[in-house]
Amino acid sequence: MVSQTGPRARARAWLLSGALLLAAPPALAGDPPKHAPPRDEQPYVHKGFVYRSTTAVRYNPLGLSTFFRVGYQRPLLGPQENILLQRTNIGLHVVTTITPAFLRGGLRLDVQPLAFLQFLFAYEGMALFGTFDTLQSFRRVSEDFGDDRQVERGAQGLAYRTTGGIFTADTILQAKVGPILLVSDTQFIHTDFTIRPGDRFYFDLPLSMLAKDDGWMVTNETDLLYVTSFGLMAGARHGVYHTFFPAEAVAGEEARASAITPIEFAGPLLGWQFHEHNGPKRFNAPGLFLNVSFWIRNPYRTGQEVAATVPYIVSGFTFKGTL
Fold first, then answer.
1. Residue 257 C-alpha from the chain's centroid
2. What is the span of the domain harbouring residue 296?
3. What are the boundaries of the signal sequence (predicted)?
4. Which of 38, 59, 133, 138 is a Cys-bridge partner for 154, taking CB atoms 3.0 to 4.6 Å apart?
5. What global pTM score does this model have?
6. d(CA 4, CA 9)
7. 12 falls within a domain
8. How far are the Cα atoms of 9, 30, 79, 173, 180 from residue 42, in angstroms, in the given order?
9. Residue 3 lies in a domain
């Protein structure tokens, strides 16, 4: 299933919200223009209730999800001439991700103190339904957690329903110079699930990798895009996901631990941003996105079970609005 804070399917890279725009140099004081150029319209920040929805599908691994958030936000500084101080805001949101395999939801605090910097802090509960051979847990990192083995384990009754909690601290950096847009999203994630007694690890379905229960992971996705004036965006995405394995948990299996984390991918990214109204609107800024990446590091998808030439594909539709 597709990760929500994700990325991954959240379409942050192709949305221009909060990007750092570099202003043209001012005219010399001794040579004023006869007619002042029209002043750019200030980016609108809504005070009140807002929402966003993203639905995405993925392949290799397979997934389907819908992410939705709704909450109250307010501007921090209001209209500003300094472009670094525009679009600042703070908001508290209810977030949820729905997939055929799990339901995830909770509260998220969004803080954007500068035009190019955003912080997100979320705590969510997660319930896995026991479908699609998940959740599966393991005692050692040396155990086989590939797709084929998980199907076999599921047939043996080793997949089960369970619940847990997820804390996420997220930092997003954004910059735009001319038509070039750069977005880097780094998340620190702590998970704690109810797993079988004696097991210490589990297969994390959103990130598709082995994780330490009651432990930490870090992810980074960086997008570099050329943004056209008519809505098309084209560029590339690079992603790295890493699990922190305590030394005592992988004692004697350090080589295996190093072989399964981090996982890494890269590939072309396309987006289409329809018109965004710079003001309150119930349905606003719809967009489409498509990322076709290839696995650079993965214990099962670079020739072990799946050929390295098989792409990792994520595609979806996103929109937002005010209430």
1. 24
2. 48-322
3. 1-29
4. 133
5. 0.86
6. 6
7. no
8. 28, 27, 7, 20, 20
9. no
Distance CA 95, CA 155 (A): 33
> Given the DSSP bridges, would you call strands 102-114 and 162-177 parallel, antiparallel or unpaired?
unpaired
Q: How far is the CA of 202 from the CAs of 3, 128, 195, 199, 256, in angstroms?
A: 16, 12, 8, 8, 15
Does 2 have pLDDT greater than 80?
no
Q: Kindly state the average pLDDT of the residues 163-181.
A: 97
* Position 7 in a domain: no
User: What is the pLDDT, as a whole number, of residue 42?
Assistant: 79
CATH of the domain at 189: 2.40.160.40
Q: What are phi and psi of 68, to 5 degrees?
A: -145, 135
Q: How many domains does the chain have?
A: 1
User: Amino acid identity, residue 21?
Assistant: L
- The single residue listed with the structure tokens 């996420």 is 168
Q: How far apart are CA 233 and CA 290, in angstroms?
A: 10
Q: How far apart, in whole angstroms, are the C-alpha atoms of residue 261 and residue 300? A: 12
- One-letter identity of residue 226: Y
DSSP code of 202? E
